[in-house]
Every structure is written in structure tokens, then in C-alpha cells.
Design a protein that fits this description.
single chain; alpha/beta; five-stranded mixed beta sheet; 11 helices; 9 strands; globular
């Protein structure tokens, strides 16, 4: 392990708070770290909808933070950031950043955590990697050995927790912390709760994806209202149908007074495309991956973005 990685490992193990993203990659990363630290989930900060760990006054306790899978942006706390998204900020003197951005083959945050804390189990790295990369995850050395069938079954259940309003994210994290292999987690009674949430989210997706698109020359809009976080799934589904257009899936029902949206398809850096269409935007907008991004805007600002993309909505 290089000196830089050793420094990051020390920061991970010493952080006062663990702040994982609430998708499968983030939760697997947090679970791996918790297992090594041998502490309970009380030291984990699970952020609510519309919250991020970034900004001048983040919704985090005071103290150092291990921020996992949230991106690399200005963080107003000491600590460590582990992530595989595009880098948008340089670390402060009291911060360490470990990034897998642009690695080939691609990696997830859970894979990076296992590099830093190799005593964590391979199956947790595989949970995070499969969630983001699909079957390519199983070719990564950090994910070997891992039981593929159980991983493929468990990942969509863990991912479903955050899609529902007030979903059972803490239960999903606890399953990954408390079990020694994915087959055991799948036999836990709490899996039934995740399965019900997944079924409800799938129903919400089926309803939303039937929304007729408004199609422009280079971009298309699918706009609907759902309490479930299905806009990324809708954007992905329609991007295949409407290729090579950029697809914006916009959800008016996810947060009060906001339009939450996901952008997929097209070509090139979608983050740059959004910023060019709405250069004065502030806040949660055009972060994440080059090819998978989105944001949360006030309705008037979102309408301006749509016009900037050439969609006559």
C-alpha cells in the first residue's frame, strides 16, 4: 500500500462519522468500513432526500467525516472522501480524497474501500460494483471470490430501499453489516420489507415510464409526478428508445417545490451539456458521472433548462 493510500486508510478508520450514499454502492462501502471498525450503525449518518454532505453548512455533525460515494465536491468538514465520480474540488489540508474516476476498467466506491481496507469481505465490494457496473464487477480482483447469484439477487433489494419515501435504508445497511455472506442476508426476515419496497418502486416505474415524451431535435423530456425515486430508471429506459437524443426524466412528485431529474443518453459529457444550457444554475445540478447526471431545481429554473436544451415543453 502506498503512503497516500495508507494515509487515506488511517483517515477512514479514525473518522468520527461515516456518511455513505444510500444506494447499494454507498451502503456496501459504509458496511465494509463499519465491519472493520467494529462499531454499530449509530456512527453512520444517512442523509434524507434532497440532502448532500456538501456546502457551507452541511447536515452533518461536527467532527471528521468519511464521505463515501457522494462525489468529490467542497466539504466543510475534515476527513476523507472516497469516490469514483468526476472530481469537482481539491481537498483541503485536513482532508484526503481517494478517487477512482476514469480508471479502466471502471471501479465503484466499494471497490476503492476494499483497496484501502482489504480485510473487508469481497462480497461487499461486489455488491457495490455490481450495482454500478453489472457483470463487469465480477472481473475485478477486489470482488473475487463472490457468489454471483446471491449478489445479483441482493443488489436490487438493497438499491430499492432509497427509492421509496422514508424507505428502509437503515435496514438495508444493517443487513450488509450483520451478515457474513449474501446468502445469509437473503434469508433475513428484513429482506421481505425490502422486497415489498422494490415491488412498489417497480409499479411506480411502470406507471412513470408510460409517460409520453416531448421530443426535440437533440433532446427529449419525460415529465411525471411520483413519490418514488424512479426518474433515473425512466431516463435510462427512454434513452434506449430515443437514441441518439439526450433524455431528461423529470419528477415533480419527489420533493415539494422541486423538480428532480435524471439525464441519460446522447453523447459526450452530460454535465457540461446541462451547465451550458443553464449556466447560472446553483445548487444540486450537473454533478455525478459524465454519462449519468441530473439535479434538483425550482420549477421555473427547470423550465429554463428545458428551453436551453431545445425542448418545447
Amino acid at each position: 500500500m502506498t503512503a497516500e493510500l495508507a494515509t487515506a486508510r488511517r483517515a477512514l478508520l479514525a473518522a468520527d462519522w461515516i456518511v455513505p450514499h444510500t444506494d447499494a454502492d454507498g451502503l456496501a462501502s459504509g458496511a465494509a468500513l463499519l465491519r472493520v471498525r467494529r462499531h454499530g450503525v449509530a456512527e453512520v449518518v444517512l442523509l434524507d432526500r434532497g440532502q448532500t454532505p456538501f456546502g457551507d453548512d452541511p447536515p452533518l455533525p461536527m467532527g471528521s467525516a468519511a464521505v463515501l460515494d457522494w462525489g468529490v465536491r467542497p466539504l466543510a468538514r475534515p476527513g476523507v472522501v472516497v469516490d469514483h465520480h468526476a472530481l469537482e474540488a481539491e481537498p483541503r489540508a485536513d482532508q484526503v480524497v481517494v478517487s477512482g474516476y476514469a480508471e479502466e476498467p471502471a471501479v465503484s466506491t466499494a471497490v476503492l474501500v476494499r483497496r484501502l481496507v482489504p480485510e473487508t469481505p469481497a462480497w461487499l465490494a461486489a455488491i457495490g460494483a455490481f450495482a454500478d457496473l453489472g457483470d463487469a464487477a465480477f472481473a475485478l480482483p477486489e470482488c473475487s471470490p463472490a457468489p454471483r447469484t446471491a449478489i445479483r439477487t441482493l443488489v436490487p433489494l438493497v438499491n430499492a430501499a432509497r427509492r421509496a419515501p422514508a424507505g428502509p435504508v437503515a435496514d438495508a445497511l444493517a443487513l450488509l453489516v450483520e451478515h457474513d455472506e449474501p446468502g445469509s442476508a437473503l434469508r433475513d426476515p428484513r429482506i421481505a420489507v425490502l422486497a415489498r419496497v422494490r415491488a412498489a418502486a417497480q409499479a411506480a416505474f411502470r406507471a412513470a415510464v408510460r409517460t409520453a415524451p416531448v421530443v426535440g431535435a437533440d433532446a427529449a423530456l419525460i415529465r411525471f409526478a411520483s413519490a418514488y425515486q424512479v426518474h433515473p430508471l425512466v431516463a435510462t429506459a427512454w434513452s434506449r428508445r430515443l437514441a441518439p437524443r439526450v433524455v431528461v426524466a423529470a419528477n415533480d412528485g419527489y420533493l415539494p417545490g422541486r423538480v428532480n431529474f435524471a439525464v441519460r443518453g446522447g453523447h459526450g459529457d452530460l454535465r457540461g451539456l446541462l451547465r451550458g444550457a443553464l449556466p447560472e444554475a446553483r445548487g444540486e445540478f450537473a454533478h455525478g458521472h459524465d454519462r449519468a447526471t441530473g439535479g434538483s431545481l425550482a420549477p421555473a429554473e427547470f423550465d429554463e433548462l428545458v428551453r436551453g436544451l431545445g425542448i418545447a415543453a
